Amino acid sequence: MKLTESLIELEEKHQALLEEITALKMLAFTLEEENERLRRLLCSYTDEDKAKVERNVAKIQGQGYDNLVKLYEEGFHICHLHFGQARQGDCLFCVGFLRKL
Amino acid sequence: MKITATKENLLFGVSAVQKAVSNKSTLPILTCIKLEVQNEKLYFSATDLEIGIQCHVPVEVVTEGMTIVPAKYFSEIVRKLPDSLITLELVNEHELIIEYEKSQLNLKTFSPDDFPQLPDVEAGVKLEISAAELKQMINQIVFACSMDERRPLFTGVLCEIENKQLKMVSTDTHRLALKQGKLKKGAKKPLSFIIPGKILSELSRLIQNEEDICYLSISENLATFLLDNILVVCRLLEGQFPNYRQVIPTQYNSKIKANTKLLSEAVERISLFSLNSDTNTVQIKVEDNLMIIFSQSELGQGYEQIFIENEGEPVEIAFNYRYLLDVFKVLATDFFTIEFTGSLSPGIIRPLENDDFLYLILPVRS
């Protein structure tokens, strides 16, 4: 291959790289804009709104935990390995999972 | 093939490979033992395709060769032979003549071409461990494996290797045993695999000379254990062993120190009143350096008090006595500790001043 051809090929690669950098630059700009908008949105929520969301999350988690305990007490596995299968006696992994929650 | 051997050597060979002989008759060749004479040794091989065992014994060789004999009959014959020199000779390719004293038995044989080759694990990770240490590790772990074949993962023992440290973990989901040991030659990268518990039990039985080194080779789905004159090949169990670390409590509310023999004997006596109950439960109460073990059923009731050392809150808990007795049999120290974290949380049993073994046992709700 001649030197000129090599240089042309290198130039094309360089051009492609530059185009990719430009595209990534635009994407980064869009993400930064979105991030800024979300930050502003977050600041617009009052402490009461935040507390309400937190209470709601805790309630949902509490319900989830209660449901798991109920399922376990009714004689079913809640560990990921045998979830929903009938258990015989207590299971170390279910008890460990409940303790972790 | 023609050899002369002692009854003792023949019996050792057939007993060593017996566990690998298939009980199912769907593939009759798997109910057989392969006998191969090579380099002044008689090799015995058997496989049920899950486990393969090969062992060799020294014999006086007249001619080398190989044959396949039905395991059931050959083993019975060997067991009943007199304690004298025995000659085995293959004639007409399908008949084994067994000569002893002035007597002779003729046993029909199978073609060696049909017998499956034991898999070769040359490419696996190579490890070495003292046979005595491996035997002790297996014996302290394997009893906690599940017998329930519907959940095959728990019928196995998880082996975790990091540098020269080997951890073995077994559980039936009601209790968990964990043992740590040292390898003589470890792995460069961390490695974990699950070996069927019944194969480890067999390996422990086969370790006779505790001064041996056991050479392990682990590949993607096979493991081999090479002892002085015995080779065991087995398939590894597939699947993800659950995260056992998250079930081990890191804190405790109370802790006791007790004498292994005293407590073991007390539980054994008191458990007589639980023999016919469904739960096999003994109640335990700990307060002021005193442990009361209590049990009752329609047969009657009984209690024993033993002195212990305790710290922390008083304890009232119930355990399956079988799970307690199992661990008392393998605790290698005179004293041990139990850490309690609540009447529904697992208790942790450890040998005193020894961190390489722990046993987790779930209480029974009473």
Structure characteristics:
heterodimer; A: 101 residues; mainly alpha; 3 helices; 0% strand; elongated; B: 366 residues; alpha+beta; DNA Polymerase III, Chain A, domain 2; 3 domains; 8-stranded antiparallel sheet; 7-stranded antiparallel sheet; 6 helices; 24 strands
Report on the structure:
The complex is a heterodimer of chains A (101) and B (366). Chain A has helices at residues 3-44, 47-73, 92-100. Chain A is an all-alpha fold and 101 residues long. The longest helix of chain A is centred in the N-terminal third of the chain and has 42 residues, at 3-44. An eight-stranded antiparallel sheet of chain B has the order 6-2-3-4-15-14-13-10. A seven-stranded antiparallel sheet of chain B has the order 11-12-24-23-22-16-20. Chain B contains six helices and 24 strands. Chain B has helices at 7-17, 71-80, 131-141, 197-206, 260-270, 321-330; strands spanning 2-6, 32-38, 41-47, 51-58, 60-63, 65-70, 85-91, 95-100, 103-108, 125-130, 156-171, 175-196, 213-218, 222-226, 230-235, 254-259, 281-287, 290-297, 300-307, 309-312, 315-320, 335-340, 347-351, 357-361. At the A-B interface, α3 of A face loops of B.
